[in-house]
Design a protein that fits this description.
2 copies of one chain form a homodimer.
Chain A (H helix, E strand, L loop, with lengths): L8 E7 L3 H13 L2 E7 L3 H9 L5 E3 L2 H5 L4 E4 L6 H8 L8 E4 L5 H7 L8 E2 L2 E3 L20 E4 L7 H13 L3 E4 L2 H27 L6 H6 L5 H7 L4 H10 L1 H23 L3 H20 L19
Parallel strand pairs in A: 1-2, 1-4, 2-3, 4-5, 5-6, 8-9
Antiparallel strand pairs in A: 7-8
Helix pairs in contact in A: 4-5, 7-9, 7-11
Chain lengths: 312, 312
């Protein structure tokens, strides 16, 4: 197949075709920036769905078959599975190919995949900060990355032109791109994503195990705030287990800060310190304004769930 | 003015015209179930806006003026302000009138307002479990209560027909209605609303005071989960200060459970107990399914923020 002038990578391999893998396929096709897309999945059902939805031009049961001759290989599997995939595909990687991933932790990707990447292959870990609570190949859509950020964490010594090329790929998918060291990524994501997910999972489980409040009551009266947490707590359990097992240090550090602050608030409640509460609640509004101004959330009340558009 | 056959209450007084007060006006007008709506507000600006938006037929600077001769008086002010409003309006309440409120804590309403309610006036505290992160008279809309729950907590001895009448009023505004004791309400809401708000406020403040992660990074990379918490943390600070000062016991009890469970999770992370994490994350999905089946949230991914409809 002749290279199309708009193609950034001619042959792209998706190792794993869930929410993120399928969204990359949709967005890359929308942008017309790739030639062929191959894919592999762990289960025959996912592979069948990927074929039926035409997410891939060729579907294979193994990562090695999908990655053979690819110009860009994207690992779209839980971070705990990336190391063994890297080991499997190493022998078939084309010289000059780029290997990247979409995992929510980057230090462990460097640690687990790095040793397997052959000389002459470019290894540039990545993480699109985008997703939904739905999982699987049917949940992807082309707009998922639009105006979201994608972070690349190339190890020292990575060829700059290859980083620039992968950056242009993500920009064509709709993303803004930032480059930073893997360990800083893991610290930033611990507070903006990992700890929020952990406390969402936690309160849902606390609510489900009360003796004096029934599950039925929790469900009926969830519109006072709780329901928002359940959306986040509906995210893929395997992906999130792997995140916490592989970003332990940063998560424990941020969790320590969270708990310290919560105990401080709890004490203010116990002793009726209204001014402390009021000031903290007022301060919290500024960050929300910043997020809306930065285009990272909608200003519509209740995220627009009630069908009311935002004013700002 | 002659009573209209569809009117449940002929003259309704809104004491306070913020998000909830203005939404009651919109919803009551949509349903055609009230004759005249009077209103009072603490600030001239709110009163002016209420007049301009025709939320009220008559606007007064004091609660007593608005409540005079009303058939239904609805206190729509922060719970900490309800006692003094009850004291102020007591002398002008019409025999047979109903006094209710919309506060997120019910025990304190019974404690603070109850003693001022004159004999012959019906006192039925209430709480619509509905809202948005926006405040003020311009943020209300008629659909706010549709398919949400409203809890009524009539004290022992309340005339049943008056409870039934107020129930029909809330049903006409779009709500489902449940009746329960005030102390049970306060326990249920502690876990479904108060503690979720507290931990949302808390993580936003933790994130804002880190030394190694900038506010700019927190904002840019918020789409990984954090941004959802900032919506809840943008709610009205005065209202929430009053909630925590007035539902101390139940909030501290639920917060104790939350922290105990969080420490358990933290320990599982520290010791790499993947199975404990996986099981907890999987269990949390069931409650989400229950909430969607009960019509208390949308199934659309990301609350539909990306414009994608839910599959069911």
């Amino acid at each position: 197949m002749a290279a199309h002038s708009k193609h950034i990578y001619e042959k792209v391999a998706l190792i794993g075709i869930g929410l993120i893998g399928s969204s990359i396929s949709h967005a890359a096709r929308r942008a017309g920036i790739v030639g062929t897309i191959t894919g592999s999945a762990r289960t025959p059902a996912t592979l069948e769905t990927a074929k039926r939805l035409k997410l891939v031009d060729a579907a294979y049961p193994t990562a090695a078959e999908a990655a053979r001759d690819a110009d860009l290989v994207i690992l779209c599997v839980p971070v705990g599975a990336c190391g063994s995939v890297a080991e499997e595909i190493a022998p078939v990687l084309k010289p000059g190919a780029v290997v990247t991933d979409v995992g929510s932790v980057k230090g462990c990707i460097v640690r687990d995949c790095g040793p397997y990447i052959p000389s002459g292959v470019h290894f540039i870990p990545g993480h699109p900060i985008a997703g939904t609570e739905h999982s699987g190949p049917e949940s992807g859509f082309a707009e998922l990355f639009d105006n979201r950020w994608c972070i690349l964490t190339p190890p020292d010594g990575t060829v700059p032109s290859e980083v620039a090329k992968l950056k242009s790929f993500w920009q064509a998918l709709g993303s803004n791109v930032e480059v930073m060291p893997a360990d800083h990524h893991d610290l930033v994501l611990a507070i903006t994503s990992h700890v929020p997910h952990l406390i969402a999972y936690n309160i849902v489980n606390t609510a489900a195990h009360l003796e004096r409040v029934t599950d039925s009551e929790v469900i009926k009266f969830s519109a006072g705030g709780f329901r928002d947490f359940t959306r986040i707590a509906a995210s893929d359990p395997t992906m999130w287990r792997d995140v916490f097992l592989n970003n332990k240090e940063a998560v424990l550090e941020m969790l320590g800060r969270f708990t310290e602050d919560l105990i401080h608030l709890q004490r203010a409640i116990r002793f009726g310190e209204g001014e402390t509460l009021f000031k903290m609640f007022t301060d919290a509004r500024a960050i929300r304004r910043g997020i809306i101004q930065a285009g990272q959330d909608t200003a519509a009340p209740n995220f627009g769930r009630d069908g009311k558009p935002g004013k700002g």
